[in-house]
Design goal:
homotetramer, alpha+beta, 4-stranded antiparallel β-sheet, 3 helices, 40% helix, 33% strand, globular
């Protein structure tokens, strides 16, 4: 099952500068072949269900290894059976109506 | 890795009454042994990472089987390495400060 | 416009123990008359749109006053025009189908 | 208080094609001067707290006027007092560590 996901990861207990942790997760998502599209409050990815959630799990593990005692992630997860749709399709579809 | 998760699942394209879909997912989470705690805008679960995300995947599959062409889920996902903490511990910890 | 909201507030840069900050926000929501229902990964509230978002703003202000340099909140926000529905109605509606 | 927000709006009860509703909200956010940055699973905005949440309220009202009986929105909301930060600053900060 293909899934489109938006991931926003927050390490807790490592102070106020989070960007190097977010960048570490971004590299995990890239290496997993999920084509991450970074925005200012998260990252869009697309892939097979198990592949995506294994990569997000790896993000949690990496952030813990970097010293974060707690990691809290917010995810939006979308699946559909009526037709195939990529991340770019979703953006194009809205832009066509603007 | 143990994970505490809050799941809010929304089937799209099946009209305005969503409760029987939410109930179907609730049963999936119960059968997976995740001790779901239903609230008005989602469900808290706790378990092993792979067990939890396999169950949420099953929720998406079941809702598609029930006729929902699209399913969109919002999840909050927490892990920690400093100590063990259950869902009830989190609630007790806040209540003790009220 | 009446709104049902689930609020999950995370202060960043204050270490790993967040419960006294969550409790402070809980008190703000109570004092605003929003009938907060605490769960393990957030709090359900209901009220008029402007009343609810003024209270969440006050939560951010209070947490900053308590010393949090950053505050990140995740919210689910629901409105409907087809009928009135309380937080308890939503829970009852799902439970009736279990 | 300046706020950075990511908004993901879902009309419920209007079928499976949501893009014209998302586009309508996008126009509301633009007209409110919030510089919306559309991505595949939401939109980033920045502005003053009351200005942002008045605009999101207007999105709910517009979608109801377009015929959606229910509207469910997920928002990530960030404030900070240690320094000023724009949406672009957040992206640049992560990219510098990639």
């Amino acid at each position: 099952m293909t899934v489109l996901v938006d991931v926003s990861i927050v390490p807790i207990g490592v102070g106020v500068s989070l960007s190097r942790y977010v960048a570490a997760c971004e590299r995990v998502l890239q290496e997993a072949g999920l084509h991450p599209q970074l925005h200012a409050y998260g990252t869009n990815v697309e892939g097979e269900w198990d592949q995506v959630f294994a990569a997000v799990r790896r993000c949690h593990e990496v952030l813990h290894e970097m010293g974060a005692p707690r990691v809290s992630t917010n995810m939006r997860v979308g699946t559909r059976t009526d037709r195939e749709q990529t991340l770019q399709d979703k953006i194009d579809s809205v832009r066509a109506k603007l």
